[in-house]
Structure formats: C-alpha cells, structure tokens
Design brief:
By secondary structure, the protein is α+β, with helices and mostly antiparallel strands. It has a single domain, classed as Ubiquitin-like (UB roll), CATH 3.10.20. Helices cover 13% and strands 24% of the residues. It has 2 helices and 5 strands. The protein is globular, with a radius of gyration of 12 Å.
Length: 107
C-alpha cells in the first residue's frame, strides 16, 4: 500500500517521494527531509508552515477543506490561492499520486 507525491519548489525543482497509504503529504516530506515544508507544529494544524499549492487536476483526489484548515490558510506567509492546502491535512489513499508546489516562504 503506497502513495506518491511530486513536490515542485517555487524555483521549479521537482522530486517525487513514495509514502505509505494513510500518510499525509507533510509526513512524506518530513520523512525525506524536503526543504520548503517546515511543519513547525508537527501536523496539528496550528502553524500553517506546511502550506502547499495542489495541482488543479489533483484537488478532487483529496478530502475537502475543513473549516479550521480554511481559517489557517488565511495565516500563510505567502498569499493563499484557490488550490492552497495545508499538507498536514492531505492524507493519501493507496495508489494516490498527487503533485504539489511549495511556496517561496513558509514564514
């Protein structure tokens, strides 16, 4: 059971990592030491330093934005966009492969 995430930095560098189904986009990034996602709060949705932009085609593969996530997205260092999500809230299903872009800054 696995999932994959392709991370694109704000400068265009791309890397793809595999993780276990049930892991979040943030957890996979942290396991691989990805720069661009800080995740200060460790995934408790209280810091917004794991902000990512999800590829438009992949939004339907993810759970909807909760009310609390929506509020936290208003506190990101880089202005939110319609495809902004907190990567700690993006738990992946088996076989899921999504693409996200990290913002220029998380703080």
């Amino acid at each position: 059971m696995s999932a994959q995430v392709t991370y694109t930095s704000s400068t265009g560098e791309q890397v793809t990592y595999e993780g276990a189904a049930g892991e979040s986009v943030m957890q996979i990034a942290m396991h691989h030491g990805l720069r661009g996602i800080i995740a200060e709060c460790g995934g408790s949705m209280s810091c917004s330093t794991c902000h990512v932009f999800v590829d438009e085609d992949d939004l339907e593969l993810l759970p909807p934005v909760s009310e609390l996530e929506d509020e936290m997205l208003d506190t990101t260092a880089v202005d939110r966009e319609p495809n902004s999500r907190l990567s700690c809230q993006l738990v992946l299903a088996d076989g899921c492969w999504i693409h996200v872009t990290t913002p220029e800054s998380q703080m």
